[in-house]
Every structure is written in structure tokens, then in C-alpha cells.
Amino acid sequence: MTTFEIRQFGDPVLRQRAREVTELDGELARLAETMIATMHEAHGVGLAAPQIGVQKRLYTYDVEELAERGAAAAGPGVLVNPEIVDADGESVYEEGCLSVPGLHFDIVRPERVTVRGLDLDGHEVILSSDDFMARVMQHEIDHLDGILVLDRLDVDARRAALRELRTRDFDAAAPAGGAHRL
Ligand code: NI
Fold first, then answer.
1. Beta strand pairing status for 91-97 and 180-181?
2. Is 83 a catalytic residue?
3. Nearest Cα to Cα of residue 29 among 68, 90, 75, 78
4. Residue 56: phi, psi to the nearest 5?
5. Tens digits of per-residue pLDDT, 10-19?
6. 64, 68, 95, 140: which is the annotated catalytic residue?
7. What's this model's pTM, rounded to 2 decimal places?
8. Which of 142, 143, 167 is nearest to 11 (CA)?
9. 82-133, pLDDT tens digit by residue?
């Protein structure tokens, strides 16, 4: 199957706020299908449309290790026009990003979130998650708002990361030190 090229840090498309999806049609379904294939090919657990250069508010996810534990909503799935409607707690988790290959960061975020969005048929989906699944949801919604993990770091950590990004020659296929890539 055809897959998309994943846009990398430095590409301005990653810095823009994506637009609401207004047409839930066959074209969107095909886009989502190709995004899932792209995500799987890159060994990622989440992929937002801006990461493949499409300025639409949707993302795909597939948290296989949760599926193995019997979680029904682990994916592969698609959320359209998602928004966080509830969040609480706080946790630190190591996140990698398919658009910032080779690096991973300890990121602080709410531990539990409830996300409301649409499926590809236009039905409302309300997804409450915690732990790693909640991470994936928050990381991908950040992408839809043009926010990268680097923006979630404190000043010193961000400066160090940017220095790395300037000086290292990144291989998009490089594993992110065992961290999940979203
Ligand atoms: Ni990412």
C-alpha cells in the first residue's frame, strides 16, 4: 500500500493549527487508511494529519500493547475533530515523535483525559483514557495545534534538544531509544 512521507522537524506544516474537518466522505476515509498504513510502517503508535502535510484535524492511533491487554478502544482507530473535554492528574512519560526522530523526552501531562471527537461516519466518540493511551491522545492533539514535544520542555531541556537537532544528522528510521513514537 502507498504510504505518506512523514514530515520532519523544521517543516512549517508542523507549526500550523490544522483546520476542522467538514467533509466526512470517502476521500477522508482513504486518507485515514493511508495514515494508518504510514503509522504502522514507521512503527508509530499515533500519527496526526499535519505530520503527513495535511492540515486537517484528525489523527490515527494503534496502541497494540493495550489491545493485548484486552482494551477495546486501543485501535487501530481514527479520531476526527478531537478535543479534550476533561483532564486530571499528572504524570511523566517518555515520548518520542515520528517528526522528531532519534530523540525522546520526559514530558509532563495530565494522567487521564476524556477526548470527544467523531469517527469516520460522523458519529460522536467519547474516549476516556489513562496511562499511555492518554499520552497518545494528548500528543496527537498537540500536533493538530502545531505543538511539538519540544514545546513541552523547560527552557534548558529545549535548548539542549534544539542543539542536538542542529548538529546531528537524523535518520528518520532511527529508533527513539526504545521510547514510543507518536
Ligand atoms: Ni509526534
1. parallel
2. no
3. 78
4. -130, 150
5. 999 999 999 9
6. 140
7. 0.91
8. 143
9. 999 999 999 999 999 999 988 999 999 999 999 999 999 999 999 998 888 9
Residues with CB under 5 A from ligand 1 (ion): 97, 182
In the chain, what are the domains? 12-173 (3.90.45.10)
The angle subtended at Cα 55 by Cα 49 and Cα 59, nearest 5°, is 25
Q: The dihedral of CA 176, 149, 22, 87: what is its sign?
A: positive
Residues 6+ apart with CB under 8 A from 60: 32, 35, 36, 39, 46, 47, 75, 76, 77, 78
In the reported structure, the alpha carbon of residue 3 is separated from the centroid of ligand 1 by a whole-number distance in angstroms of 17
Between the CA of 101 and the centroid of ligand 1 the distance, in Å, is: 9
Query: What's the 16 CA to ligand 1 centre distance in angstroms?
Result: 14
How many angstroms does the Cα of residue 181 sit away from the middle of ligand 1?
Answer: 7
